[in-house]
Structures are given as structure tokens and as C-alpha cells.
Amino acid sequence: MTRPTFVRARRPEHKQQRREAILEAARRLALESGVRNVTLGGVATAVGLAKSNVVRYFGTREEIYLELLSEAGRDWHDAVVQRLGAPTPPGDVVTVLAETLAERPLFCDLLGQLSQHLEHNVSLTAARAFKETALELTTGLGRAVARAHPELTVDEAVELTHLAAWLAGCLYAASHPSPAIAELYQQEPHLLAALCPPFLPTLRRALAALAAGLPTLRDQPA
């Protein structure tokens, strides 16, 4: 693959070009080998820059992936809102949430890495920008879900979308085990069946249970 040719980044458009190239290299490497296996040095090599130059645009590897997670979150938000824009039976809302997540493996991988890795080794500025974006997107998703699923309040719909994202991250991590666990599952299929549930049907079933159960808890203290 031909690496991009950069001029010295004096002008804003040149700086933006480098930022986009860094993000694209990190995205490609994550899709090829998984987020947890990508290093800052690997991103620098892929984009054709010294590691010290990459750090000028993103302080750490984790900040690169927080930015990609925000981008992926916006993409998920837009896809859900678009699909819920047409008349949608309440039961289909859960299917929309689950299917749009299953269609975005990098997003799910990033969600699975978020709490344990990507929220560490980041600046306060990067953390604040990410959390504010996450709040904006989940609030917007909650409103869209509540409109399509009138049995849920907006707060319940926001909670459902939060849980959809968290569950997707956990399920994606479980369904993409380490090489040692993958080899074990090949040797012991009964362990695979019991401990590595299929992503989409498991997520859909869990979200259906949550959507049905949340209204029953309204009168109980949080």
C-alpha cells in the first residue's frame, strides 16, 4: 500500500490531512488485527511518520482510538435514527439496535476496549471531548428509540441504548477470544457452545428482555 506523501504541516489543511491519515491508518490496523493489538509505533509506521510526529496530533494511542470511537458512535447514531425514521413496531426497535451494532465490528471492538484500556492514558481534554460526545449521542438515540417505542420513557430508552452499547462490547470481546482460547474452543466444542454465545441473537434477546423489563421498574428506587 502506498503511504501518503506529506508536506510540512504549516497550514491548517496540512495538519488536518495528517490527522485524517493517522486515524485512517489506526482504523485499518484495528480492522486487520484488533484494537488491542495495535501500537502507537505500528500506527506511525503505517502512516509514514515518526512516532514523535504522531504524538503531536494525538497524545497517545488511546486518544487516537477514542476519536475513532466517537466517529463510530456518530455513524451508529445516524444509522439507528434513519432506520427508526419510518414507522417501526416496538418489537423491531430492539432488532434495529442489535443489527446496526452487529454491522459495525470495529465499533463493537472499540466498545469492548473502552473501560479497561481506551479511557486510560488520555488527557483530561480528550476524555472530556469523548464523554460529551457520548452523552450527546446516547441522548439523541434515546429520544429516537422512545418515539419508536412509546412504552419506554425517554430515560428508559436512553438506558436501553447505553446497555446496548455496553453489551455489544462485552459480547464482541467474548466472540473474538485470544488465540489460546480459540484453540481450546476448537478442541472442546461444548465449551464454545456454553461460553461463546452468537453475537447477534444473544444481543437481540438481551435487549428484548431489557426493553420489556425497564417499564416494570419505574416505581422502584434506583
TrEMBL record:
Record keywords: DNA-binding
HTH tetR-type domain residues: 16-76
InterPro entries: Homeodomain-like_sf, HTH-type_TetR-like_transc_reg, HTH_TetR, TetR_C_34
Annotated DNA-binding residue span(s): 39-58
Name this polypeptide is given: TetR family transcriptional regulator
Native species: Nonomuraea indica
UniProt lineage: Bacteria, Bacillati, Actinomycetota, Actinomycetes, Streptosporangiales
